[in-house]
TrEMBL record:
Transmembrane segments: none
Protein name as annotated: Putative neuraminidase
Domain of life of the organism encoding this protein: Bacteria
Organism: Silicimonas algicola
Gene3D superfamilies membership: 2.120.10.10
Region Disordered: start-end pairs: 223-245
Residue span, Sialidase domain: 47-358
């Protein structure tokens, strides 16, 4: 399998959705940034949108939120929609609210200090506001609307440790609930959730929700459940899908199944691939010791293959798995310039008309890749 250089990838970032020999359609989204990561797909009434963060390097203050729109088989030139010169703006979420507003939420942090992160929300074209959530709150998954109209925003909390540097060792999960259209929020904790992050909510019908988690421990995707609309949660328990301490995307399909896009790999499968932390390359003069106690985060497990997993039991097990793309998944550096990063990670999955699945993910930290799969193609796998 040939490996594309950063320059070769850049040459193909034209946004044109083209058919492949495998029977799918694929595109590399246009972007002026050398690093592009953390895609988020959203089906609006007008078109399919993709948001991500881009700049020179995750954690640096030139990282901002970008968006492109797919129309007539072509992704539009990337539009920059955030611009804080002092903070790294990451993990965008787009939400078309029931009241007609298009809202964009994202995180904002200084350097690698995720435990001091803010969550910001803006209406398209307006200035952002900081949500009334504790510092260190992070987001990644989409907002879900409960039957009574309340908004559920899945969170993970990078808990500050006075005098110590954030490493992910004390991260926990929670849901923020708003009953006033996003003006105020209250948090509901997920019990026994240390290390369970990137909470993603999947409606199971009525007031039932399942939640799926990336794991700092790089063991398995974990799952918990709520039977009361997110007001209480069971403790996360492992599924049968390995996890590499990288993001996943889970959705409820129109046929009743749960679909999850992820990298089914873990530390046990790759015992030698390790890096010290998420922000090795920042080189900041931070002489604080690493956070003590908590869980032991594992960084560097390969971020590949990109796989679709399907469940018929509400996400407890995922017996059917379809390979989307394979490769080494090497992620021992976040650098997007030297060509050493080969991850295919941070998927965002949405279902379109007639069972079509649209998937976007990070490609070598250089581009956002979009893959469109028809129901006929999926059924043939």
């Amino acid at each position: 399998m040939s490996v594309l250089s950063p320059e070769m990838i850049a040459d193909r970032m034209n946004g044109r959705l083209v058919a492949t020999a495998e029977g799918r359609e694929e595109a590399l989204l246009p972007s002026p940034c050398i690093q592009n990561h953390a895609a988020f797909l959203s089906h609006g009434k007008d078109a399919l949108h993709c948001l991500w963060f881009g700049g020179s390097l995750e954690g640096k203050s030139d990282i901002s939120i970008w968006r492109s729109t797919l129309r007539d088989g072509l992704w539009s030139p990337a539009e920059q929609i955030s611009d804080d010169p002092a903070r790294s703006e990451q993990n965008p979420v787009q939400f078309d609210a029931p009241d007609g507003r298009r809202l964009i939420l994202h995180t904002a942090q200084e350097g690698g200090n995720q435990d001091a992160c803010l969550v910001r929300m803006r209406e398209a074209g307006a200035a952002p506001v900081d949500l009334d959530l504790p510092k260190g709150t992070f987001i990644r998954g989409p907002i879900r609307v409960r039957g009574d109209g309340a908004w559920l925003l899945p969170l993970f909390r990078c808990v500050p440790r006075p005098g110590e540097r954030w490493t992910g060792s004390h991260d926990t999960a929670a849901v923020a609930i708003s009953t006033d259209a996003g003006t105020t929020w209250r948090e509901v904790e997920v019990p026994d959730s240390i290390g369970s992050v990137h909470m993603t909510l999947v409606p199971l019908g009525g007031d039932r929700f399942a939640a799926f988690y990336r794991r700092r421990q790089a063991d398995f995707v974990h799952r918990s459940e709520s039977d009361d609309g997110g007001e209480t949660w069971s403790a996360p328990k492992p599924t049968d899908v390995p996890n590499n301490n990288s993001s996943l995307s889970a959705i409820a399909l129109s046929d009743g199944r749960v679909a999850m896009a992820c990298n089914p790999a873990n530390a046990e499968m790759h015992p030698d691939a390790r890096r010290a932390s998420l922000y090795d390359e920042l080189g900041e003069g931070d002489d604080r010791p690493n956070a003590s106690g908590g869980c032991k985060p594992i960084w560097g497990v390969p971020r590949a293959p990109m796989t679709l997993c399907f469940s018929t039991d509400g996400g407890r097990t995922f017996p059917k798995r379809i390979l989307v793309e394979d490769g080494s998944g090497t992620c021992l550096t976040n650098n997007s310039v030297d060509g050493q990063n080969h991850e295919m990670s941070y998927p965002s999955l949405v279902e379109g008309p007639e069972g079509t699945l649209d998937l976007a993910y990070t490609y070598f930290r250089r581009a956002i890749k979009h893959v469109r799969m028809t129901r006929a193609w999926l059924d043939a796998q």
